């Protein structure tokens, strides 16, 4: 018998994919790709954003907690029992106070010809796998500015900065990161760069309209309920089966919305109050510092205790300073307690866009 | 029937269209990944492959009607995360390489025993070869990609695919005691066993 025939014979022992697995995978996929329709789509959101958009000879992939979480989500129960109490009393107080404060903090007024500038700084884990299977992980830092015109139907501008490994990264990590950058510069003609300026009417970067929360375009944010329970129900309905647990996914979805910097004050307040209803949400740190700003961190742990998703709120203004994923277990590359990804957000009104 | 590139073109405007690409190819990606690293890895790799594909949609070359090389390229990349699971599977399979390990169950005809032993030997040689050679060989034999498809999946010239495949098959044949590969035999093997690649 021929060697290839024998090899193919080996394959015939492999079963087909269970239809239920494929169906669940499809649901997961559709809910995730629906939720990437926002300006930050490729800077930091769910699992897809953590995988490098470039393929080069030395294959690159983002070491992703989210990938592990994706698998975790498959086995996690996807029902939140009604009547279960929400966040701890302390966390609920922080969130409800933030909701009250954020209503007081009026939305910035963007005059004709002006832009709302949303500046984000983000760190996230990156990694590469060499052909021999050797894995390297490190943390990349990047920044971006989205300029939202006063008339939101007009052209939005998004400047995406380079990703640079943190100073503290190993030599091997810096070398791998340099290789990725080089590959982006040498990409085939016609392939979009991952850095630089993008322009899109209505903020539909990559063809996706910005969303308020998954399933609702930003332009229809007014249609979402301001009742926190009703809002949370919608979020859980639309994220069913995604994430490590329904509770964690709900907080991630809320963070996704707040991070966009374009959510109106009353919806922001409702999102905070909805977060206060999520079981397992606790105050993690009252003096959490993110990118130089200090606020209160509230968070929720993944069911396996391996990670915690946090949002950090300025208690005075009720604005979200940022959010972070903290790895609670040590890995080969990062000690326990490392923020394996974080994003800080700051908004201001400016007179021009690049 | 619409081609993969038609679906991808439509997906750029409507995420719902992307579901068709999943329906079309998820099961082959799953089966390939399961063969290499087990069901648990297959579940993860299949989900991630389509998420990555979604993210890279803009970079897809619409002149390519068949998206399989692209998807298998992404899956191959993602499978490297599961190299431990793959090594474990190959190790388990390689234990059958000695006839003794199979046991002399009298119900078993010699040919079946031989097949089990051969699978064990294949596992040994897959384990022994360089990861890129193994990836190339399995994209050919299990994913049914053509040389050109593999070249596109792995971002290497066709000549490189050819030399990697030759090297991988040499390792395989040495382990199987099939003697050296000559071109006639090579062609014969392809026609008999791989009409889909041809």
What does this structure look like?
The complex is a heterodimer of chains A (354) and B (198). Chain A has 8 helices and 12 strands. Chain A has helices at 3-11, 19-35, 65-75, 89-104, 171-185, 228-238, 246-259, 265-275; strands at residues 115-129, 135-149, 155-160, 164-165, 196-201, 211-213, 216-217, 282-290, 293-301, 307-313, 320-327, 339-350. Chain B is an all-alpha fold. The model of chain B is unreliable at 101-108 and 180-198 (pLDDT under 50). In chain B, 73% of the residues lie in helices and 0% in strands. At the A-B interface, helix 1, helix 2 and helix 3 of A face helix 2, helix 3, helix 6, helix 7 and helix 9 of B.
The helix content of chain B, as a percent range, equals: over 70%
Report the end-to-end length of chain A measured between terminal Cα atoms. 66 Å
Number of helices of chain B: 10
Total number of helices of chain A = 8
The low-confidence runs of chain A, each spanning 5 or more residues with pLDDT under 50, are 36-84
């Amino acid at each position: 018998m021929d060697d290839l025939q024998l090899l193919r014979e080996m394959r015939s022992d492999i079963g087909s994919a269970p239809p239920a697995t494929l169906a669940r995978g499809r649901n997961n996929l559709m809910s995730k790709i629906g939720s990437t329709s926002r300006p930050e789509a490729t800077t930091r959101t769910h699992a897809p954003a953590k995988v490098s958009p470039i393929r080069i000879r030395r294959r690159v992939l983002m070491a992703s907690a989210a990938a592990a979480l994706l698998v975790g989500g498959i086995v996690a129960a996807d029902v939140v029992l009604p009547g279960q109490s929400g966040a701890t009393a302390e966390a609920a107080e922080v969130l409800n106070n933030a909701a009250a404060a954020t209503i007081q903090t009026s939305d910035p007024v963007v005059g004709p010809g002006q832009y709302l500038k949303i500046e984000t700084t983000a760190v996230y884990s990156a990694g590469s796998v060499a052909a021999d299977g050797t894995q390297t992980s490190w943390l990349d830092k990047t920044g971006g500015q989205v300029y939202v015109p006063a008339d939101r139907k007009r052209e939005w501008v998004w400047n995406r900065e380079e990703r640079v490994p943190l100073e503290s990264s190993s030599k091997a990590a810096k070398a791998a990161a340099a290789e990725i950058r080089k590959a982006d510069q040498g990409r085939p003609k016609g392939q979009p760069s991952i850095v630089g300026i993008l322009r899109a009417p209505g903020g539909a970067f990559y063809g996706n309209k910005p969303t308020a929360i998954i399933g609702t375009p930003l332009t229809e944010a007014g249609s979402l309920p301001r009742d926190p329970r009703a809002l949370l129900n919608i979020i859980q309905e639309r994220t069913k089966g995604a994430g490590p647990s329904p509770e964690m996914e709900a907080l991630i979805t809320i963070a996704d919305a707040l991070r966009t910097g374009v959510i109106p004050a009353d919806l922001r307040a409702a999102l905070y109050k909805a977060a206060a209803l999520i079981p397992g949400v606790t105050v993690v740190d009252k003096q959490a510092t993110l990118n130089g700003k200090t606020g209160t961190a509230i968070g929720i742990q993944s069911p396996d205790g391996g990670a915690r998703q946090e949002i950090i709120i300025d208690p005075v203004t009720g604005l979200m300073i940022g959010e972070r994923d903290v790895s609670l277990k040590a890995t080969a590359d990062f000690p326990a307690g490392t923020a394996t990804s974080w994003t800080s957000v700051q908004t201001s009104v400016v007179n021009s866009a690049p | 029937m619409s081609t993969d590139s038609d679906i991808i073109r439509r997906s750029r405007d409507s995420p719902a269209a992307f579901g068709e690409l999943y329906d079309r190819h998820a099961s082959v990606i799953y089966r390939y990944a399961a063969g290499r690293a087990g069901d648990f890895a297959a579940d993860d790799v299949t989900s991630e492959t389509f998420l990555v594909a979604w993210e890279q949609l803009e970079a897809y070359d619409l002149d390519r009607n068949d998206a399989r090389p692209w998807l298998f390229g992404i899956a191959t990349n993602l499978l490297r995360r599961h190299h431990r699971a793959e090594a474990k599977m190959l190790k388990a399979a390689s234990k059958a390489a000695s006839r003794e390990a199979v046991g002399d169950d009298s119900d078993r005809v010699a040919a079946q025993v031989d097949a089990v032993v051969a699978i064990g030997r294949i596992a040994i040689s897959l384990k022994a070869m360089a990861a890129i050679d193994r990836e190339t060989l399995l994209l050919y034999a299990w994913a049914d990609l053509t040389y050109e498809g593999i070249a596109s999946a792995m971002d290497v010239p066709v000549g490189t695919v050819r030399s990697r495949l030759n090297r991988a098959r040499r390792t395989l044949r040495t382990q199987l005691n099939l003697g050296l590969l000559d071109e006639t035999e090579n062609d014969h093997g392809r026609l008999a066993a791989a009409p889909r690649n041809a």
